[in-house]
Amino acid sequence: MKLSRYFLPTIKENPAEAQIASHRLMLRAGLIRQSSAGIYSWLPLGLQVLKKIEQIVREEQVRAGAQELLMPTIQSADLWRESGRYDDYGREMLRITDRHERDMLYGPTNEELITDIFRSNVKSYKDLPLNLFHIQWKFRDEIRPRFGVMRGREFLMKDNYSFDIDEASARHSYNAMFIAYLRTFARMGLKAIPMRADTGPIGGDLSHEFIVVAPTGESEVFYHKSFDDLDVMSETSDVNFDGDLQPLVDRWTAEYAATDEMHDATACDVPEAELINGRGIEVGHIFFFGDKYSTPMGALVQDNTGQKIPAQMGSYGIGVSRLVGAIIEASHDDDGIIWPEAVAPFKVGIINLRHGDEGTTGVCDDLYAKLQAAGVEVLYDDRDERAGSKFSNMDLIGVPWQIVIGPRGVKNGMAELKCRATGEKSEVSLDTVLDQFIG
Ligand code: ATP
Ligand code: MG
Prior knowledge:
By secondary structure, the protein is of the alpha+beta class. The chain has twelve helices and 23 strands. It has helices at residues 21-28, 44-63, 77-83, 85-88, 111-121, 167-187, 232-235, 246-252, 320-330, 358-373, 387-397, 407-412, and strands at 32-36, 39-42, 67-68, 74-76, 94-97, 103-106, 130-139, 154-164, 192-196, 207-213, 219-224, 257-259, 275-290, 300-302, 308-310, 312-319, 332-333, 336-337, 348-352, 378-381, 401-405, 414-419, 425-429. 42% of the residues are buried.
């Protein structure tokens, strides 16, 4: 993409309404624009990141055995009356009446709808286990939408729902999601810590929130310092999701980790020197709730004795749009965003220091063409702008690698390669500067 043609409205000043770094930077770097409280448009740069995150989430869901479908955003109130949640959900739910005076709603979550799909189509234990996910917009009329996409009213969520014949099998489905979640966040360069969450009247130990530690997080957290060394990717490189997952989950839940809601100072036996007290952002939540929906909604399956029993269900959510903010909270500096490569909107930026100069422009055009031909996502700053403003713009939008081409370098056959994360700059010959990007 040539920057001269790219729709990237950046802002120099810090927007007054933004209280935290990610919100500020998402506005300044032209990722989003607010349309009304807690509701945002995603501009091209923001959408590219959102899609990258979505794709990682999708790949890890599929790897763990879930299948993708797509349910609508607008749902019928009747289903929610069956589960009893139409009245319970309160004012967070956006209620809509259609032209026939039928009660509809904009889905804040999808347990009822998926249970309806399940009960109409699955009748036998032979079709279980089943795990279905979608990535769809949700609406919750939050009392205090704030921090940009972190707590929006309209937001993108990956939610999935597992159906099993008994609790042992449901625990396996839960464990698979537990591991898939840790892998998902690790692939985005995030350290997310699984913390025991409230199971309410359901009871048991099968509810975890996944928390990214950041000083601006909404919840206070307490966790054993060993979580800082969790190496998810290497420990799961050959994980078999059909095998026994319990030992791995047991190991990853052995140490203490709790949000303020669950923290119990008297029950916490971690020595003070090993307990970290900080703040965190909830990026995911997994929950086993048995027959909470399947019994009232009649989602029954025949077991191997021919008896009809309610399916055992779990639900699992990831805040896909919140993750954009969480990643920026975890990875930025005074100059702007520092995208982890896996979610970066572009991998490489090319900066032409002397617009209009035949030599530098020829070299830049050539590098740009080669990267494009190799399928490397590249943003080429070909604008007629001062060098200083090109540097600060590329830093602001956080492209991981910058190739800087100036007249002196071109004369010597050299380019400058800069790593956004470390700030390290090196002189590299024009012949080899693309080697690390083109395999
Ligand atoms: P919170 O406690 O932050 O309100 P929740 O418990 O209501 O979250 P879930 O219903 O478990 O959230 O939703 C799954 C995920 O969706 C959350 O872990 C979070 O990442 C994301 N999420 C929830 N509410 C919002 C929101 N208002 N804006 C953006 N993401 C959200
Ligand atoms: Mg909530």
